[in-house]
Design goal:
Chains A, B: This is TetR/AcrR family transcriptional regulator. The structure is a homodimer. By secondary structure, chain A is mainly alpha-helical. In chain A, α6 crosses α7. Chains A and B meet through α6, α7, α8, α9 and α10 of A and α6, α7, α8, α9 and α10 of B.
């Protein structure tokens, strides 16, 4: 009986795909977004550029998927049996759940594999409105929507006031961390994100 | 009696200085930080490049001062008789004072004269650690310290809890606005910054 060709071919494709992701992330970190080309990614990955064009229409698309893949890898150790990746914990203690997720984000932001290409793309997104919009829509906003869901669940249980807009509320702890990382306006740590969550939940004014 | 040469010379210098600032801001907005050169600024300003080198050691220094000057111009209409520029209002109502300053920041962020060069420099600061540090230290942090002083004054009056760290607390309303502007993660408006202040002061949890 003849072997089916599919599994080998799939493994080969998977290897190429991974090599292309790695090459794309490495290149954008080294030379920046503007100087990263499909040709450069292909040469570094050891594939023909037609291989890349077969799967992705542009370098922005390659990089977007490379980032999605990197984020999935980063979240793998935290994924438990039967749990969806990126599932936001809901233990019934909002503060603890927010701190858990924000501490994991601190780990990711301080990981050089993630940091170098992320900075290059974030910088490009600031001046290149089209690229910025793609990354916000496909990469950042979906993860922010997990905070929205968790805050809504907290509203249902009376842990968060009903008149609060969750999409704005999440920015009280997510944006300070993002700005310290992006603009290096201060150190980031577990203690720092814990403090942000405490301030946001309980407010600056005396109770 | 011979005229003193100083006033004319000072006016000439002031005109050159202004032309150089305008040229530097226009260029960095058009071609980005990396491609902005002292030669390019000099040509656009109609001065010799030695004129620029006489006053500033590098393009980063020219741009830094051009920005300081732009911020001062922007704040001029709000400056009242006998009041220092950039003075933070202290009417005794912390929420109202924070909203007043943040609304003025919204106006500035939406002003194209400010927005285009700011984006170019912010993007460069994300990847260029040295430049980022200069702009944070000399431009951003001094304005954040005005929030720190205002929050300390509110702590003295019992409007803000004593255990709060003002340098972290200010990020609850400043950073969300910065991130929406920098990464275009959402619209910015007076209503938006008012909401941030209300959430930060009173907290997300029921009182």
């Amino acid at each position: 009986m003849a072997k089916k060709p599919a599994p080998n071919s799939t493994r080969r494709s998977e290897r190429s795909r991974r090599a292309i992701y790695d090459a794309a992330l490495a290149l954008v970190g080294e030379v920046g977004y503007a100087k990263t080309t499909i040709e450069g990614i292909a040469a570094r990955a050891g594939v023909g550029k037609q291989t890349i064009y077969r799967w992705w229409p542009s370098k922005a698309d390659v990089l977007l998927e490379a980032f999605l893949d990197l984020s999935e890898q980063a979240s793998e150790p935290a994924v438990k049996e039967g749990q969806e990746p990126f599932e936001f914990p809901d233990t019934g203690d909002l503060g603890a759940d927010l701190k858990f997720v924000l501490r994991a984000t601190v780990d990711e932001l301080l990981d050089p594999r993630f940091e170098v290409p992320s900075r290059a793309l974030a910088a490009e997104g600031v001046v290149n409105e089209q690229l910025g919009a793609v990354f916000v829509t496909k990469l950042l906003e979906p993860s922010l929507q997990l905070y929205v869901q968790r805050l809504r669940s907290a509203q249902d249980k009376g842990e968060v006031r009903h008149e609060i807009d969750p999409r704005i509320a999440l920015e009280l702890f997510v944006s300070p961390l993002a700005q310290r990382w992006l603009q290096r306006t201060g150190p980031i740590s577990y203690e720092y994100v814990d403090t942000l969550v405490d301030y946001a939940l309980h407010g600056l004014a005396p109770r």
